[in-house]
Amino acid sequence: MDIDREGLAAFLRRRRETLQPEDVGLPRGPRRRTDGLRREEVALLCHMSTDYYARLERERGPQPSDQMLASIAQGLHLSLAERDHLFRLAGHQPPPRGATSDHIGPGLLRILDRLDDTPAEIVTELGETLRQSPLGVALTGDASRYSGPDRSFPFRWFVDPAARERYAPQDHDGLSRLFASGLREIATRRGAGSRAAAYADLLLARSAEFRGLWDRHEVGVRPDAVKRFRHPEVGLLELNCQSLLDPDQSHRLLVYTADPGSESYEKLQLLAVIGAQPMRTSPPT
Predict the structure, then answer these.
(1) Alpha-carbon torsion 249, 15, 81, 88, what sign?
(2) Residue 79 is part of which domain span?
């Protein structure tokens, strides 16, 4: 497929002009005269240089790669139909939809962008973190930095001891059962050639604990309503977890809250102040 530079430029300009800063979690600021977002704001959201993005709107520059188009689609909060249209304008076949897609629907993104004061994350059905709120990063660390099978938190749970450090020890056995059961259900639903089945094969080869749980053929294990986190700075937090499902993409928005007036509520407020930076500092060298 050939790139339609004129159509691509017009589509990008129109989508940029219809978005407001508050739609994508950015401050509006004083003396704003631009209709919609500025080019530099879109470039920031898409993790690219302003010059690169500006050239696309001016019908110039190289043909964008699949990865670059995916970043643009996510940064502009495109729907699946709009994302597919963007790829075709740029001369590419659209990525597959469904459970294997990492494209977050604009509805979930709009909600997440408004959750600056709450730990929240958007995950795939395999527990791969796609996006976190700032307080979500402060609570559990940056989970979006992983690649390959390690992107899946249930996978890391069985192969990396560090994955368990922020969870109360008394909950470890139950979480192991939950993750093994969930992976069996997903692998059965998606089939032998699925990513879930590949993760299960890898875990069977690498984790004795997983092999023992897999042999139970346990399904239907569901998470507790209250999750206990151990944070290195504020200590134990008991948080309620609410879940919102995007059925088209099998993505979930997980939001963690504390009961007002509780000790965990006070600790969560402290964590919002601390952010992802540790309170303790190393002595100067």
Answers:
(1) negative
(2) 5-89
